[in-house]
Design goal:
Layout: H1 3-16, E1 34-38, E2 49-58, E3 61-68, E4 74-79, E5 84-86, E6 97-105, E7 108-117, E8 121-129, E9 134-136, E10 145-155, E11 158-168, E12 171-179, E13 184-191, E14 193-199, E15 207-212, E16 219-224, E17 229-232, E18 243-248, E19 251-257, E20 265-270, E21 275-278, E22 287-293, E23 301-308, E24 313-320, E25 325-327, E26 337-345, E27 352-359, E28 366-374
Antiparallel strand pairs: 1-28, 2-3, 3-4, 4-5, 6-7, 7-8, 8-9, 10-11, 11-12, 12-13, 14-15, 15-16, 16-17, 18-19, 19-20, 20-21, 22-23, 23-24, 24-25, 26-27, 27-28
Length: about 375
């Protein structure tokens, strides 16, 4: 296992074994006709596998990615409507690690992450699925010590990735890269910061968030298409933005941890004119949201996360309907730990997929995938 993948695997396993459920007060609107069904992908490794993200194109075309104690450590899974199966990616470097995935169609899926260079160390990775194979996509950031944590594909000629870059020793700054169908262009943002998420639905509604030092709140940038530049927005909420998602240019969600009341989770929403904080009902200091997903039909916004105690870990899925949050009572299958790190609505349906990992014994992890289906 490469140094980069080993660090990622240890980090994710530590998170998985640290998350568990505590009591929360949420409205219960779990319809009798809607159920969670566990349909787990095969484990590439007997006891060290977990999924980190999922992207749904239709009920019979779903992709997921994660890691496993194999060589290479990257695992890519596909669901065809009846079962999950591993998808090989021999063209990708053996050190490849996905951090984010954005699906446009069955023959155009983008992924962003990290790979390892013998001369540079960690460098940015962009990969593309063309309907038959996964291939690496060179970008200017490949020449530098860099990492990508998020990707959003707005169209075949409009793809954004975000992360960090170091063009000189001990100098780090936020990075975005844009693909216009012909070439990639880098945008260097503020020093001493890192972008952890990027979201949008159209060129005039792209946002990126992350973390920086000596800031009053989480780092937030908005793209100005007329000026072709990123503008930093003042933000006094939270420590850093962990996840973002957009339903439209007038509705963008940002979620992350904060050290103050009402607990570790803060939620903000862009309404087209400004950012406003949304009261999130989970106030437990041990609760964390790993992904927010706003691409579902109607007003639905999904939140995937978990709550931890000193001995156990369980996961949760919350759904926002435009007024209230509802605990969707996800299946916690691991007797020691269950973690859900990704959630993806199935387009034009009320159904969703959620992925992560579970453990029945300390020090082990297995792939977990659950589908919420309404009859």
């Amino acid at each position: 296992m490469t140094r980069v993948r080993r660090i990622l695997a240890v980090t994710f396993l530590s998170l998985l074994l640290a998350l568990t459920a505590l009591a929360v007060s949420l409205s219960d609107a779990h319809a009798q006709s809607c159920t969670w069904q566990v349909i787990n992908p095969p484990d590439p490794a007997p006891s060290q596998s977990a999924l980190q993200g999922v992207a749904s194109l239709s009920s019979n075309d779903v992709w997921a990615f994660g890691f496993a104690a194999t060589n290479p450590t990257l695992q890519i899974q596909h669901y065809n409507g009846s079962q999950w199966s591993l998808v090989s990616a021999p063209a990708l470097p053996s050190s490849a690690a996905f951090e984010s995935m954005s699906a446009l169609s069955s023959n155009s899926i983008w992924a962003a992450g990290i790979q390892e260079s013998a001369s540079i160390g960690a460098v940015a990775l962009v990969a593309h699925w063309d309907g038959s194979q996964w291939s690496p996509v060179p970008t200017p950031a490949d020449a530098y010590n860099s990492q990508l944590f998020s990707v959003v594909a707005l169209g075949k000629n409009d793809v954004w990735v975000a992360g960090l870059i170091s063009t000189a020793p001990f100098v780090q700054q936020s990075l975005t890269e844009h693909y216009d169908g012909k070439a990639w262009k880098m945008y260097f943002l503020s020093y001493g910061t890192s972008l952890t998420s990027i979201a949008g639905t159209s060129p005039d509604g792209v946002w990126a968030g992350g973390i920086g030092v000596n800031l009053p709140g989480a780092l937030m940038f908005g793209w100005q298409p007329n000026n072709h530049q990123w503008v930093q927005y003042p933000n006094k909420v939270g420590n850093f933005i962990q996840t973002m998602s957009a339903k439209s240019s007038r509705e963008v969600w940002a979620v992350g941890p904060t050290g103050g009341y009402p607990g570790p989770v803060f939620v903000e929403k862009w309404n087209g004119q400004g950012w406003a904080q949304v009261r999130y009902p989970r106030k437990n200091v041990n609760s964390h949201v790993h992904q927010v997903e706003a691409t579902a039909p109607g007003n639905a916004v999904w939140f995937a996360g978990g709550t931890n105690s000193s001995t156990h870990a369980t996961a949760f899925i919350d759904r926002y309907d435009g007024i209230n949050f509802t605990d969707m009572h996800v299946s916690n299958v691991g007797s020691v730990a269950t973690s859900l790190s990704g959630v993806s609505p199935i387009p034009k349906t009320p159904s969703v997929w959620a992925v992560g990992g579970y453990s029945d014994y300390e020090g082990t992890a297995h792939n977990l995938a659950e589908r919420y289906t309404c009859q």
